[in-house]
Amino acid sequence: MKYTSEVFKRLSRGQFISANSIVPEVRAIYNDIEDNEKEYADYFSQIDFQLESGDGYYYFSRSEQRVVIEGKLRSLFVWIDYLDFLTSYDSTFGAGTQFTLAQMEVRVGSDVELKDKLADICEDKPSIHDKLLALATTMTNQGFAELVSEDEGMYQVTNAFRYITHIIDCINIDEEVKDEIPE
Question: Is 88 exposed, middle or buried (0-12, 13-18, 19+ CB in 10 A)?
Fold first, then answer.
């Protein structure tokens, strides 16, 4: 357990530690957690943080009150639109995908469906480029992507992206109830 401080600093802010990070230090931290998972879990449980693992990533969870959980669920709604856009852009969009804002901008400019989907997200941003940058920044801040090359504007999707796709996939709206949900 060489990285307790680094793990706490990253995970306590709601970020992830992904096995496919482009940052060698993050991959080293991931490997140390993987090698010492029980020790890390026991260590952080003492301060009421549960070390959780996904498919190639780690994160913290905590027991929370229902009101807090409902607020978090509301914050996930925007990710439904993000994922709809991203998977419409590339049906294989997921962990390991590399993308540039320039490529996305060209594709959105020539695809009416993508343009419409992008219009529904980041509504406060005036241009396609600004909307895409806001989306990429959100993904980076959440730990779902990392900036590979600032010059090229290239990003790589991390394994932690599976976290959000898994949560959204778990949402199941019963056909009978679907018509009762207000828009």
Answer: middle
pLDDT per residue of the chain (183 residues) written in tens, 0 to 9: 999 999 999 999 889 999 999 999 999 999 999 999 999 999 999 998 999 999 999 999 877 655 566 776 777 888 899 999 999 999 999 999 999 999 999 999 999 999 999 998 888 888 999 999 999 999 999 999 999 999 999 999 999 999 999 888 877 555 554 455 544
Residue type, 59: Y
| 140/130 Cα distance (integer angstroms) | 15
Both tokens of residue 42? 């026991």
Q: Residue 180: which H helix or E strand, with range? A: none
